[in-house]
Amino acid sequence: MTTDGQVRVRSLRADAYTVPTATEDRKRPESDGTIRWDSTGVLVVTLEAGGATGLGYAYTAPASLQVVQDVLWAVIANADPFDTEHLFWEMARATRNIGWAGVSAGAIAAVDIALHDLKARLCGISLTQLLGGAHASVEAYGSGGFTDYTDGELTDQLGSWAAQGFRSVKMKVGSNPADDPRRVALAREAIGTGVELFVDANGAYERKQALQLAESFTEHGVTWFEEPVSSQDRQGLRLLRDRMPASIRVAAGEYGYTPADFRDLLIDGCVDVLQADATRCGITGFGIAASLATAFGVPLSAHTAPALHASVAAAHRPAINVEYFHDHARIEARFFDGLPVLDHGELKPDLSAPGHGLTLREPDIDAHRVQTFAVDVN
After folding, report:
1. Helix (H, G, I), strand (E, B), or coil: what is residue 227?
2. Calpha distance 355→52 (Å, rounded)
3. What whole-number distance in Å separates Cα of residue 81 and Cα of residue 11?
4. What would the pLDDT profile of 128-186 be if each residue is shown by its tens digit?
């Protein structure tokens, strides 16, 4: 509080973590069609105002913490946490000289999520209700099937999700295009005929190559082709969307950092399904993407971060699913208490808990922390 009785942001703490992909039963890096990675960066931001604490996080490089420290704190210090829209755009404006996309966007997103969580907690309501409360639950799809997986690892993972009641699963393709039809056939055999199969190339294919492979994927009932070519090639996405077999939807948007990124994909007719990731575009940006999707008459899919997106996606009418991404589901189970219920492929936010309902399990994750910044209003 301040002397005038108004609630103000009084303190901020930001922690950067690095979580290895290696586990006891799997020691090597993971890969998709375009990159390999051996760790995942997580930025966690907590804000305090009016006796309440808001929690936000983003999957981003540790360098994003420096953006919070050097640029964003000056914007939100002593600010009214209810002014989320104003603060989002002020944070974006403050990154003009360093660039909004990428690392800066992750920092803005983590702070924006913390502000929305704080706002909901101050109101004593769930984040889903604060944002609109369109759905009581949202469908999740199992996502993994990395291109470095052995055949056994691929079929075990996707098959286990099907057995748990997921109605759709997604696998990575693109590292070895010549082998992708065989891998897709294996995946279909593992999940049976009653589960939808999605593929994600992460922009690895050339245009005609993607079109040719799409034809072979239809033989195995693939219904979703994510980033068949790079999202930077909007003409290519439009071409493929127009020529793709009718049974396959083209999805893209996970690299939407700014509202203009979503606008451009929709204006250019690039997607059947627009994706958005609140840990890259913030809750404010996700809401803008949802409004644009509604205006253009396309559904919206939440990219990764299932613990957060259970609350955020459920709040918006065009949202049809949330990506239950293997790496993030593993990290969130380690980092947070209060995870949303996952029941037969449906994620259900806890509408009785204030905010998104997540609390940080700090003693359990100390070993992954690489940097901390904490500050109070003087």
Report:
1. coil
2. 11
3. 12
4. 999 999 999 999 999 999 999 999 999 999 999 999 999 999 999 999 999 999 999 99
Three-state secondary structure string covering 244-256? CCCCCEEEECCCC
CA distance 76 to 8: 9
Q: CA quadruple 64, 66, 71, 74: dihedral positive or negative?
A: positive
Euclidean distance between CA atoms 333 and 316, whole angstroms: 25
Q: How many CA atoms lie within 13 A of 5 on its CB side?
A: 0
What tokens were used for 362?
């700090």
Token digits for 19?
A: 């979580």
**What distance in Å separates the CA atoms of residue 169 and residue 144, rounded to the nearest whole number?**
8
∠181-185-189 over CA atoms, to 5°?
170
Domains of the chain plus CATH, in order, are 11-124+363-376 (3.30.390.10), 129-348 (3.20.20.120)
Q: pTM of the prediction? A: 0.97
